[in-house]
Hints:
Order of helices and strands: HHHHHEHEHEHEHEHEHEEHHHHHHHHHHH
CATH topology of the largest domain: Rossmann fold
Number of domains: 3
Helix content: 55-70%
Distance between the termini: 25 Å
Mean pLDDT: 77
Shape: flat
CATH class of the largest domain: Alpha Beta
Strand order of the largest sheet: 3-2-4-1-5-6-7-8
Strand content: 5-15%
Structural class: alpha/beta
Largest sheet: 8 strands, mixed
Number of helices: 22
CATH superfamily of the largest domain: P-loop containing nucleotide triphosphate hydrolases
Low-confidence stretches: 360-365, 441-462
Amino acid sequence: MFEALSSKLAAVFDRLRGRGVLSEADVNEALREVRIALLEADVALPVVRELINKVRERAVGQEVIRSVAPAQQVVKIVHDALVEALGGMPGQPGPAAGLDLDAPAPVAILMVGLQGSGKTTTAGKIALRLKNRLRRKVLLASLDTQRPAAQQQLATLAAQAGVASLPIIPGQGPLEIAARAMDVARRELYDVVILDTAGRLSIDEALMAEAAAVKSLVRPQETLLVVDAMTGQDAVNTARAFHEKVGVSGIVLTRVDGDARGGAALSMRAVTGAPIKLLGAGEKLDALEDFHPERIAGRILGMGDIVSLVERAAEAIDREEAEKLAARMQKGEFTLEDYAKQLEQIGRMGSLQGLLGMLPGIGRLKEQLKDARLDERMLKRQAAIISSMTPAERRRPEIIKASRKRRIAAGAGVQVQDVNRLLKQYEEMSAMMKRMGRMGEKGLLRGGLSALLPGLGGKRPF
């Protein structure tokens, strides 16, 4: 989400690092460039002014200009200002804001937002999270009588998440549905009721009046505004309007894995006073992240977000399977079946660009990674090729000759050259795994990323 902003800020700070001593003029010049970068990223003008003034006040002082590493001091000051803008406390990571469920059951969560923001999908994601993580009994109810098949869509998502949905009764209005949902939840002992309201293509009085009426009726513990991060400044305007007319307790930013400029995230807290609570990072029902201001500020400045990466890996990767693979690698054993399992686990962790954005310093390799052609479809294509092989071929790929390659290619729906490319990449990765097994953990750290990239169909960027 912050790719363009991160690149521009990295360039500014790289120039500062190239100077052993910083003058006040150097700091002011850098802040002008930071200001432009923030505005180009769609950060609201009042937020930019406040952030720059805060940084200038702290940075233009003898303690920075005369410090041993003045550029690093400026980066630290900008980092702390970003954390504050995002609603956090610098130096105090603490837990994410999270959902407030501290109320007598059934706890109501009201979802509001414009049509197309990802509101219904987010309702399903939250339901899945509450069921799996907190073991809550969840009821989903659609109050959207405007959009065709909206109620059926939520019922389908509920089935996918393994939670209940309120039966559809044609002809009922939003207030009747909301009252029925709360009544069913009380009688059938549900812990949480998630109410998905109707959206509109743009903000209008009817939309606001309906959302306000439902809120007044059910008195939800959480009123979550769902906004699309890719709409930039419009997302900020939407947040302001909903907060003024309805009142929101938290914000969920969706499509943060897309080509968004990131300004919405930096502006939301200042504009509404409500915290960003969750990030939607993909279409899958489990693609929902907690919002940590410290970690997001780190991503913006190219410091990475190793904690989130490790948390995502812990959720997606089968620990027992990983330990077995590690033991095999130490013995120098690595088959195509192992390779297929690695591809599957990487796929479960989310988009490749999103994962790479969590690695420290990855912004400096941006151009090289473009050449690596990280294609999400490559994972599925390579998995299909391996699935088309016999067990013997997966264990002993050296037996795969011309006729077998043609059969495998036909079975996977690819060309023979795709099969050849996979086998070549597997050979490279297998050789690397053997070397890493001999070198231990240090070998893994040196070779891990460069091994992954060719395995995904790209050129080695190192």
